[in-house]
Write a structure and sequence with these properties.
The complex is a heterodimer of chains A (about 475) and B (about 350). Chain A is built from 16 helices and no strands. In chain A, α1 runs antiparallel to α2. The longest helix of chain A has about 40 residues. Chain B has about 350 residues and is an all-alpha fold. Chain B has two domains: about 110 residues, Orthogonal Bundle (Cytochrome Bc1 Complex, Chain D, domain 2); about 140 residues, Cytochrome Bc1 Complex, Chain D, domain 2 (Orthogonal Bundle), CATH 1.10.760.10. Chain B contains eleven helices and no strands. In chain B, α5 packs across α6. The chains are: A mainly alpha (about 475), B mainly alpha (about 350).
C-alpha cells in the first residue's frame, strides 16, 4: 500500500474502492445480522445496551442497504457506464471523495444507531448529519455520471446507462423527500401522513436505488458474459419506464390495514400488481438473451451469480405483488413472511447481482479472479443460505399469521416459532461465511494483480462487440 | 424519443414529480386531521418515555396499530387515523415479534411493567424480549408512563381502575396473608368462588396444567406455588401464595375466575386472551393438586356444569394419585372490613 492516496486519480480506482468497500460492509452487516438472529433465540446473550437486538437490527439493515448494496452496485455501475460510453470517468478524484464520504456515513451509522441516535423510520434511521453526507455523495455521483456520459464517444446510450441515470435522479428526490430533510431534528412529519411519507421512502430506496442499479448490471453482464446480443430493445423500454412509473407509487401497500387514505391504498395495490409487467418484461429479455448459451451459466461465476439473481427477482417480485393484496396481507403482514421477502429481494436478487458484477469488474480490471473455486464455493454457500432463509422465514411467517388470524396471542405463538429462529440463525452462518470469502477473494484479486492495473482500462475493446451489435439494432 | 442522458433524466424528474404529488402531497393536503375520540396529547414525562421507546428500537418488534382482523390484548378497538395526530415520528411498526401495543396502557400495573422491563421473562417466561434493566429509575418511570399512555383515553380509564384497586389490594395485603386471601376471595362473584372444577384432575390434565403454569405463571408464583418467583421482588402486592389456601375456603372456580380475569390493581394480568377455557381449568387443577394438595373437581359435585369429558372410558379417567374429594367447609375467618366498593364493570 505504499502508493496509497486518499484521493486516487488512477483510472478505475473509484470503482475498485467502491466495490471493495461494499464487500467489507457486506461482511460487517451479515455478522451484525447473525448476532441479531442469535439474540432472538438467546435474548440474554449480551448485556450491553448497544448490542441488544432492537438496537442492532437497524444497523444490520442500514449497513446492508447503504454499505454493502449501495457501494458494491455503485462501483460496478460506474465501471459499466464508463465502459459503455467508451470514456474514462469524468473525475476519479471526485469519485474517490464520494466513496470516502459514503464510507464514513455508513461507519457513522454503524456507531450512532446502537448509541440510540435514530430517526425511527425504517431504512431512514440515520440521523440528519449522515443523511446530509449521503445526499452530498449522491449529488457528486450524479454529477459524475452525467459528465461522464456527456463525454461519451459511443453515441448510443445502452440500457444500463438509462438505469444509472434514472436511479441517481430519482433517488436524489426520494432520499431528500423521504427523509423529510427540512426537519433536521426529527426527520418526520406528523401522524398517519408521516407513515405515508416514510413508506414511500422505504419502498423506493429499493425501487429507485438498489433495484435499478442491479437491473442495469444484469443488462450489462448477461449479454457480455453469454456473448449474445440483447434479445429485444422494445422489451428494455417496456421494462424501464413503466417500472419507474409503477414503483414510485406503491409505498402505501405497507399500510393496507392501517388507517391510511383509502384511495391511496388503492393506488398502491393497483401499481403493485402493475409492477409485474416491467418485471416480467425485464426477465423475459434477460432470459431470452441467454438463448442458445445456457451452458455458459454454470461455468462463469459472474453469470452464475447474476442469473441466480434474476431467478430470485422473479420470486421476490411476484411475492411482493401478491403481498400487496389485502387477502394475502391478512396472513402475511407483521409476520416473518415480510422478513423473508426482504432477504430474498435484497440478498437473493440485488445482493447476488452485486456480488457477481463485482467479480466481473475485478476480473476485467485485473485479468483474473484470485480464486474461481472460492467464488463458486461462495455462490453455493450463499445460495443455500438465502434459499433456506426464504423457506424458513416464509414458513414461520405463515404459521404466525394463521395462528394470529385464528385468535392465538403473539405470546402464545413465540414457543412455536422458536425452532424456526434457531434454523434461521444457523442458515445465517452460511451467508456470513460467503461474505467472508468474498472480502478475501476481492482483496486478493486486487492485490495479486496490482501491477497489471496500469493497462488502459477504458480503451475501445473487442469484447464489447455484443453490446455494440445491440446498440446498432437499438438505433434511434 | 431518443434515450439520451437528458431525456432519461428529464423523464425521471417528471415521473417523480407526478408520483410525489399523487402519493405524498395530495394525501397530506386532503387528509382529515381531526382527533379521534380516544386521543390525547402526551404529558412531558410520557414524551420522555416515547423518546426512550424510539432510542431503544422498540419499534423493531412492536407495532402500534390494530387491524380489523386482530385479536390479542390490543384487539379492543380498530385504530383510526385520528389516533395518531400527535405522533411524530409515527411508530406504527412493521413487525410483530412482540404483541401490538396500541392498547397496552392500563392492561398491566406499573409494577408488572417494571418487572417486565427488568427481565421480560419474569412475568412472561417464554418471552424473547431483551432485558432493559440498564435503564435508570427515572428512565424506567418515563418509559412505563409512556407505555401506560398507549390507548389514549381508553388507557386512562383502565389506569384509573388499576390505581383504585391497587390501593385497596395493597392495604389488604399488608393486613396479613389470611386476611388477604379472604379479601381476594370476596372479590370473586359467589357463583364462581364456590364452583368446583368441572374437569377431573387426571394425570393428563395436571400435566397440561403444569405446562401452562410453566409458560405463564412460574416466575411470579414460583415453582412451589408459594409466590416467591424471581419477579416477586419487584411486585407490590406480592404474588399469591397458593399453599395458604390449605386453610381457606376455595374451589376450582375461584382460581379459574382469577386467572381468566386477572386481579385488577395487582400484577396478576388476565389470561382470557392467552388461554382457552379448558387450559385455565387445567391450571386450576395443577395448582390444586400440587400446591394446595387438595382437589375439588367434578368427581365431587358437578353442580350442573356441562362436562365434556365425562363420557371418556374410565381408564383415562383415573384421578390423580392422592386426589381426594374435599368437602367445602365454611371459612373460619370473618368477612373483610370495611364494606367493598362495587365490582368493576
Amino acid at each position: 500500500m505504499s502508493h496509497f492516496r486518499f484521493l486516487d486519480d488512477s483510472p478505475g480506482s473509484t470503482a475498485r474502492r467502491f466495490i471493495i468497500s461494499g464487500a467489507i460492509w457486506f461482511f460487517v452487516a451479515t455478522v451484525v445480522g447473525l448476532v441479531a438472529a442469535t439474540e432472538l433465540v438467546a435474548p440474554d446473550l449480551v448485556g450491553a445496551r448497544g448490542l441488544l437486538f432492537p438496537r442492532i437490527r437497524p444497523v444490520h439493515v442500514n449497513t446492508n442497504v447503504f454499505g454493502f448494496l449501495s457501494m458494491l452496485l455503485v462501483g460496478c455501475i460506474l465501471y459499466a457506464v464508463c465502459r459503455l460510453s467508451r470514456a474514462p470517468l469524468y473525475s476519479e478524484k471526485l469519485g474517490n471523495l464520494a466513496m470516502w464520504i459514503w464510507n464514513f456515513a455508513t461507519l457513522a451509522g454503524l456507531i450512532t444507531i446502537p448509541m440510540g441516535f435514530t430517526q425511527s423510520h425504517e431504512y431512514a434511521e440515520y440521523v440528519f448529519p449522515i443523511d446530509v453526507a449521503i445526499v452530498v455523495a449522491l449529488v457528486m455521483l450524479t454529477y459524475l455520471v452525467f459528465r461522464t456520459l456527456a463525454r461519451r464517444t459511443e453515441h448510443l446510450l445502452y440500457v444500463t446507462s438509462w438505469y444509472a441515470v434514472g436511479a441517481f435522479v430519482a433517488t436524489l428526490i426520494v432520499y431528500f423527500l423521504g427523509n423529510v430533510m427540512w426537519h433536521a431534528k426529527t426527520g418526520a412529519l406528523t401522524g398517519m401522513n408521516d407513515a405515508e411519507w416514510s413508506w414511500f421512502y422505504a419502498h423506493n430506496i429499493f425501487g429507485t436505488w438498489i433495484t435499478p442499479l442491479a437491473l442495469g448490471l444484469s443488462y450489462f453482464w448477461i449479454p457480455r458474459e453469454s456473448d449474445n446480443p440483447l434479445y429485444s430493445h422494445a422489451l428494455s423500454l417496456l421494462g424501464f419506464w413503466p417500472y419507474f412509473a409503477f414503483y414510485l407509487q406503491v409505498g402505501t401497500h405497507h399500510l393496507i390495514e392501517a388507517p391510511a387514505q383509502p384511495w391511496l391504498k388503492l393506488i398502491a395495490e393497483i401499481n403493485s400488481v402493475g409492477l409485474l409487467i416491467p418485471v416480467y418484461a425485464f426477465l423475459t429479455n434477460q432470459w431470452l438473451t441467454l438463448r442458445g448459451r445456457w451452458w455458459k451459466v454454470p461455468d462463469s461465476v459472474v453469470l452464475k451469480f447474476i442469473f441466480a439473481g434474476t431467478v430470485m427477482y422473479f420470486f421476490t417480485s411476484t411475492e411482493g405483488s401478491l403481498e400487496a393484496l389485502p387477502s394475502f396481507q391478512r396472513i402475511a403482514h407483521f409476520t416473518n413472511v415480510t422478513v423473508g421477502h426482504a432477504h430474498l429481494g435484497l440478498l437473493g436478487f440485488s445482493g447476488f447481482i452485486a456480488c457477481g458484477a463485482g467479480y466481473g469488474v475485478l476480473r476485467e480490471m485485473y485479468g483474473e479472479i484470485w480464486s474461481e473455486r472460492l467464488a463458486h464455493l461462495q455462490y453455493w454457500l450463499m445460495l443455500i443460505g438465502i434459499g433456506g432463509f426464504t423457506f424458513v422465514l416464509t414458513a414461520v411467517g405463515l404459521l404466525q399469521g394463521s395462528a394470529w388470524r385464528n385468535g392465538e396471542t403473539v405470546y402464545r405463538v413465540l414457543p412455536e416459532i422458536f425452532p424456526f429462529y434457531i434454523e434461521r440463525a444457523a442458515l445465517g452462518c452460511f451467508i456470513v461465511t460467503g461474505a467472508a470469502i468474498q472480502v478475501y477473494n476481492y482483496v486478493r484479486t486486487a492485490q495479486a494483480h496490482r501491477q497489471r492495473s496500469e493497462r488502459a482500462l477504458y480503451a475501445v475493446d473487442d469484447t464489447a462487440i455484443a453490446l455494440r451489435r445491440e446498440a446498432e439494432v437499438a438505433g434511434d | 424519443m431518443a434515450m439520451t442522458p437528458r431525456s432519461v433524466g428529464l423523464g425521471m424528474a417528471i415521473l417523480a414529480t407526478f408520483a410525489t404529488w399523487t402519493v405524498l402531497f395530495l394525501p397530506g393536503l386532503t387528509a382529515p386531521n381531526t382527533p379521534s375520540d380516544i386521543v390525547r396529547p402526551l404529558t412531558p414525562k410520557e414524551r420522555l418515555g416515547r423518546v426512550l421507546y424510539i432510542k431503544n428500537g422498540c419499534i423493531a418488534c412492536h407495532s402500534q396499530y390494530v387491524r380489523p382482523t386482530d385479536w390479542d390484548y390490543s384487539g379492543l378497538r380498530v385504530s383510526q387515523r385520528g389516533d395518531y395526530i400527535y405522533d411524530r415520528p409515527h411508530l406504527l411498526g412493521s413487525e410483530r415479534t412482540g404483541p401490538d401495543l396500541s392498547q397496552e396502557g392500563g392492561q398491566h400495573t406499573d409494577d408488572w411493567q417494571i418487572a417486565h422491563f427488568i427481565n421480560p421473562r419474569y412475568p412472561r417466561p417464554a418471552s424473547i424480549m431483551p432485558r432493559f434493566s440498564f435503564l435508570s429509575p427515572n428512565e424506567m418511570d418515563a418509559l412505563v408512563a409512556y407505555v401506560q399512555s398507549l390507548g389514549g383515553k381508553m388507557a386512562d380509564q383502565r389506569m384509573a381502575r388499576q390505581r383504585h384497586w391497587h390501593k385497596l389490594l395493597v392495604a389488604a395485603y399488608h393486613r396479613g396473608a389470611d386476611y388477604n386471601a379472604s379479601y381476594l376471595r370476596s372479590l370473586v362473584p359467589p357463583q364462581w368462588s364456590t364452583m368446583p372444577n368441572p374437569y377431573p384432575a387426571t394425570q393428563v390434565a395436571v400435566a397440561q396444567g403444569r405446562f401452562v403454569y410453566e409458560q405463564m405463571c412460574i416466575n411470579c408464583h414460583g415453582p412451589l406455588g408459594d409466590g416467591n418467583g424471581p419477579a416477586a421482588e419487584w411486585l407490590d402486592p406480592k404474588p399469591f401464595n397458593f399453599t395458604l389456601l390449605k386453610r381457606h375456603r376455595w374451589s376450582g372456580g375461584l382460581i379459574y375466575y382469577q386467572v381468566m380475569n386477572g386481579i385488577t390493581g395487582s400484577a396478576m394480568p388476565y389470561f382470557k386472551e392467552d388461554l382457552e377455557s379448558a387450559k385455565i381449568w387445567d391450571v386450576a387443577n395443577y395448582v390444586a393438586v400440587h400446591f394446595i394438595g387438595k382437589n375439588i373437581d367434578s368427581g365431587n359435585d358437578l353442580n350442573g356444569i356441562p362436562v365434556s369429558r365425562e363420557s371418556a372410558p374410565p381408564a383415562e379417567h383415573e384421578p390423580y394419585p392422592g386426589a381426594k374429594p374435599h368437602p367445602v367447609a365454611p371459612s373460619p375467618y370473618p368477612p373483610p372490613q370495611p364494606p367493598l366498593p362495587p365490582h368493576p364493570p
